[in-house]
Amino acid sequence: MNRHRFEPARLLLGLMLMGAAVVYALDALGQWRVPVWALLVLVPASLVAAAFTAVATFAVRRLLRRRRTQGPGVPGRMPMDELRGGYGASATGGLQRDDGQKDDREHGGEQHGGQQHGGTRPFGGSGGGTGTD
Q1: Is residue 109 left, alpha or beta, with left meaning phi > 0 and alpha meaning psi from -120 to 50?
Q2: Residue 97 lies in a domain
Q3: Closest Cα to residue 47, out of 21, 18, 9?
Q4: Could you report the per-residue pLDDT of 5-35, keeping only the tens digit for each?
């Protein structure tokens, strides 16, 4: 069976409509005498109760999702805030070295001072920047 998330509004609606069906059946069989106005209110009341439950479930899930995605101490941060400065300014702005400095291996292995970056390039080679690996 495929897994799916729990929907309390569907459960509530199903239980209330089954209860309404039992009341209609008992009234039809003559086992229980129910006023007509009560029979007419059962189904709309079930729908309204399920709607309120669905709205409450949506609000709780939305709140929990926001708490999970929001970093600690950053009130009101939106997922698109990272991209406002463009892709170059997002998160790291490029590759990161182990020491936290920006790594410019994409640009021929040169650092800010024009010196060669030591070590190896990501896909082999010595980092010479010649492109003839």
Answers
A1: left
A2: no
A3: 9
A4: 899 999 999 999 999 999 999 999 999 898 9
Structural domains of the chain, count: 1
The C-alpha torsion from 66 through 67 and 68 to 74, rounded to 10°, is 100
Going by C-alpha positions, the residue among 113, 120, 79, 74 that lies closest to residue 97 is 120
Residue 93 in any domain: the answer is: no
22/39 Cα distance (integer angstroms):
11
Range of the domain at 15: 8-69
**Count of all residues that appear for the chain in the document:** 133
Q: Are 81 and 70 in contact (CB under 8 A)?
A: no
Place of tokens 């009560």: 38
Nearest residue to 103 (alpha-carbon basis) of 122, 85, 87: 122
Q: Tokens standing for 82?
A: 């990272």
Residue of 40, 47, 38, 58 lying closest to 13 (CA atoms): 47
Please give the Cα distance from 133 to 123 (Å, whole number).
10
Could you report the per-residue pLDDT of 49-104, keeping only the tens digit for each?
A: 999 999 999 999 999 988 888 755 555 666 666 666 665 555 555 555 555 555 55
